[in-house]
Fold each of these.
Amino acid sequence: MTDAAFFAPLLEVRNLSLQYRSPGGPIPILHDISLYLKQGEVVGIIGESGAGKSTLGNAILGLLPPAFEQSDGTICISGMDLDRIDSRQGEALRRRRISAVFQDHTTSLDPLMSVGAQIAETIRAAEPTLCSEDVYRRVVALLKQVEIDDAERRFRDRPHQFSGGQRQRIVIAMALAGSPDLIVADEPTSALDATVQKQILALLRHLVEETGISILLVTHDMGVIAEIADRVVVMRHGHIAEQNAVSVVLDQPQNDYTRRLLAAVPKIRLTGDSVDTSVADTISVPALAIGGHGITKTFPLGRSVLPLMNSRRKAALQDISFDLLPGAITGVVGESGSGKSTLGRIFAGLEQADAGTIRIGEEIVDASRSSRKTGLLGRVQMIFQDPSVSLNPRMTIEKALRESVRYGARATGNGSGSLGAMMDRVGLSRSLLARYPHQLSGGQKQRVAIARALLARPQIIVADEPTSALDVSVQAEILDLLKEIVAEQNVTVLFISHDLAVVQALCRFVYVLKAGQIADSGSSDFIFTRSQSPYTRSLIDARPRRFTH
Amino acid sequence: MIAQTLRTWWKWWKWWPFRHNELPKLFLCAYVLLALAAPLLAPQNPYDPTQIFAWEASSAPGTPSGGGYVYWLGTDGLGRDIASTILYGLRISLMVSVISSAIAAAIGLAAGVSAAFFGRWVDIVIMRLVDLQLSLPTMLVALIAIVTLGPSIDRIILALVIVQWAAYARMVRGVALGERGKPYVDAARLLRLPTHRILFRHVLPNSVPPVVTLIPIEIGHAIALEATLSFLGLGVPVDKPSLGSAVANGFQYLLTGQYWISLFPGLALFGLIASINFVGEDLRRRLDPRREPQ
């Protein structure tokens, strides 16, 4: 090893510019990116969608499609310029020194192959001379290293027999199998629940301290950065906005964009300084007019050939009773699989429950009957998670909104508002009416979805994770809009989310759902400051500490 | 040396029209134009007995005709000009296959979307019919239809529709099932839109694109099937021209060395189906949203 290679950082990207060759001429994607990463360091790359952070990660991994070309700059590993050396050598260097962990643990693993065999395959690719006995021992050691219990026995299990968090651990074990120096982790915890995310981040941090490996962490989540990164690179529109130690970026951000990004991250308050006395810790049920009682829903587990054999069913919701504060936002929080979305869909009449009733004012509706027949359908409007699929791609915004006015308002008998006024209200230019959904940004689409829901003049709106598909800065704007509208129009909102901070910012009353049951409920103030429920506490603790006060 | 040769080949191959699928498009355009202009281009109407010179039967390609033109592709055993037969035959082949595919696509679209949207017994009835249809050999179904209905052009179209609709229905159902589960359909349901509006304004327009890619492929099938039926004497009636019956006309003469009666209509048929399939494949690739930019 030459001196230069010895003193060079593990990874150095110098003045990297990338462009995308499109039929209409090259489109610049990355501009003049320079960063470095030392042995045993965790560097986070943060940015909103379209910032070019994943492209940068893939460029380092050598995974960019051929339509991308490097117009300037170099990527060096231990001082060796990947462009300068033969491309086959460069590839070999990458394969030996760098490995990857991607977001989606369901597609990163081969569903037909046992996890042990998959890890063994990676080890053999890196060290073809190893005998099978040694490979087996290495695999078991790796599984133990990523804290999979009972590694010897689970060696032969297939990916579907593991939970999401365990699968991501196995993906990490695979990334470690070739003994690389650097792991590029692209949103490694974005598909996981907060409590699991915390464990995976702790594991990554532990691996860095134990083995001296380096991690380049690509993420959109400030909380993840705050939890494990040593240094942060803030990216925006393909440029580096700021690059500094994590404590500097979080506490004294130098760049305007970083400041805005940090301000947009919703934070949890754990002190009850703004005690909301208007809502009691618990709601006295008969006083309120909107809610559900005894809602139960099960799904069949698998499908049997014989119709009468379908007896095994999984309970999604068990005897849930809830009340909504009229003219305010009530939150339902839970991790994935807690049944919170099912509850929202039953309340909106999109799904039939097995049992239970829904009360809207004086009316009590049987939730186990067809919602079209009971008249429940149409009383409640919904705002969905992903605005790119909640608007018909073949309808202009104007047509979609007009439909809402024409058909939606019919049910309640209220007059229709003008589309233009509604566009103004949700903060969109009237000129967008002629556009199709794909011509709008994610935030704009979600505003259209809100406008569509409002134009139907509903009493009640169910918002199912309306901001989880959006960037933080856009999320903040949409949440503000929701708050204003609720205050103005006197609608009652059931707000479903996995994000405690968002729920606290928005809701006056909160239900915590766990595996189809209500684990905790109370005023927002009570839940976040005084609740004794261990489950609620564990959810709050899973939040990155930096963003709780 | 070898690498150099390969590189040169590659350079030429890049300009070769097949690579960009230009040649099949040209061919197809030419076929359509020839079919449309057949009465103007063909020297004789081979199915008008007054224009046929019976004594010039089985003339070899290039023989001059008594009518002042040349039999460039020869004549058949009854003295009909092969070139003219091909031109007139193309008209019927194209018309029959395009009309039957359009009708089959419309029926399949309606059936597939209904099956996906209504589910339950509607789905069961439609899809079992589709299964039934697809489990019977195409040829057999067409034969039974023609034998029971009798040969005529509208009956052939009917037979081809019966054979083809199921493929469309099954494809559309798959697509529509995916679309039905998307939130924009939920949003439409929440507005209590009438069912027909959800179907025709929301689910249907989003289920059409994949069907468009199936149409050219099915037209190719229809042409082949019509030609087969006509070859067997069960397709287009004997007093109408068809590529299939033109091939059949020369069948008995093949062994006597009069190859042209069967060969030229056969080549025309081959070229037509091949160009349609190439264009269809090109269309499919272009409409595939996952395609890589060139």
Amino acid sequence: MLSLTTGLAPLVLAGLLGWTGAVKVFSRGTAQQAPKTALARMLRSSERATTVLRATGAGELLIAAGLLVIPANPVPGAAAAVLGAGFLVYLGYGRTMAPESSCGCSAREDTPITWRAFARAAVVLIGGAAVAPAQDTWWSAVSERPAGALVFLAGAAAVLVALSADLDRWWLLPLRRTRLRVFGHPLLGTAAGNHQVPVAASVELLENSLAWQAAAPVVRSALLDHWEDDGWRILQYSGVYGDGENARPVAVVFALDATAGRDTGDDPVVRVSYVDADSGGAVAVDELGAVPSRKSLPMAG
Amino acid sequence: MTVRHDRADGMRRRRFLTTAALGGATIVGATALGGLDAEAAFAAEPSLDPAIAKSTFVEGRITGITGSVLEVAGSQGGHSRVQMTNVTSVWKVRATTAEVIEVGDGLYARGVKMPDGTVAADAVWVNIVNLDTQIRGIAKNRLHLAHGQHELVGHVAPDASASYAGRALTSDLSRLRIGQSAQVLGAWRPSDNSVDVVRISVGH
């Protein structure tokens, strides 16, 4: 198994470096992504960052070609190990100095530097170190044990894909969707009493009501407190009634049907009262009582 | 009986206010669906309270709490002092009280400027965020969200609500799908940069 691993490691490493290198060198996205990378921050120039990214890509392609063509030679492996170590240092720097920036690891990636970027750089370092002293060629390893080689390569590819954040949408999201389909929606029935109208819906209904419009000039606070009593939902606000000398603090209380929402269909029925904050007496009873009720216009459909 | 100084006796106060609310005027009708007829709504003279126009807004991070005064460093620079009163509404994930406010929290406050420059707060929203996100994963008590280039964990608050295609808010979150664009109203957690999801709108 160990010989299979060291024998096939150049192939895996070449695949990874060939892919990331090709993306950096040939993708038009490199120049667009460069300003967002930690490298641009480090070099204080997007143009220089683009040049360095493209040069790194070319280096990666060169190492990949070396790994494939001259497998028993220690130079490509050693170069890959140095590259991996360089990536780790760069990622460490980027994470400390510019945690918000993207790593630019495959140039198309616009996710910030995470443990996955570190793990991938470590794979390059360890892979390079393992490959450098190897004497076997990868094609002899493949021809000796083709089935084992296939399984190993598939496993290695899966690990590398899992470590690449920019490939998530191709496998992670479909996987999560499938899991929901198989095991059911995790948020199904979790809310306490799924049929109950949430307080936010009552507030929404209130804010669409004529009662709210009538009381709005008095209300000063946002929702202060709410509770339910005998099928009513009570929403409490604080406010100020009157102008200048006559201004006095009031509690504004609304009572709504606890089961009604904006989609219930009927016109909202809201009871509203101003309560003097000091005396506890009702305020402006006549004014509120004089607000005429109004039917909403019938809507098409 | 005083309403303002009665926090300790919450139940009695609530019962009193319930009676007051149910004994109040009944107003039927909607404003959003019907034509907006201001004259009908304000059958009495419209109350153009000058204090409403004088409302000030304060936004920033809380750097210190002295008694009932919050010291706020504005995110565009500057410094404000926000005076909390016992009729100031406090939102932090839900309607709550001033005790839950901590140093380091983000704050958005509306109030009236006092002669000494302090803002007497009418309403305070703590750590409130409104994010344009994409749903990337759904688990039992959290959502994985992508906001721009950031991966974000959204803790689903027990009283979280959802709106589908502009319909009324519901506590049924089981119609959320992976890949949907979602507008998330929530509370940011400064400790780990995650968000408590309070309201999520999809298909808008």
